[in-house]
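If your schedule permits, I should be very grateful for your opinion on a structural question. The matter concerns a single protein, recorded as an amino acid sequence and a row of backbone structure tokens. Could you please explain, in whatever detail you think fit, how the structure tokens follow from the sequence? I set the record out below, with my sincere thanks for your time.

——
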Amino acid sequence: MSTPPLTKSRRLGDALHLSGELGFGADGAIPEGITAQTENTIDRIEATLKAEGLDLSDVVSATCYLTDKADFAAFNAVYAARFPQPYPTRTTIECGLMIDAKVEITVVAKVR
């Protein structure tokens, strides 16, 4: 797969916008199961935020894409455990993804 024409993150004023993140592991593979994919996806978001001097508590909005609505409860459990309260505003959509992944998440964070 070629590199897509996108920027991983962009600052605009006091907001940092992250491109959609997928659940690739350290080996570059996407693991089986929504729980592992959601964990990896949030790990990758967290790493991008950390590089910008931020963390998950700075996320104010999330848009989440699931390929199967039956995965919602497992996805939601991981999401609730990883993001601190007050939770970001969120929209969750069931849709097909461009690759063999069960979840994609994009976030906007407030820059400190």
User: Anything to note?
Assistant: Helices lie at 34-51, 72-82. Strands lie at 9-12, 15-18, 59-66, 89-94, 103-110. The mean pLDDT is 95. The chain has two helices and five strands.
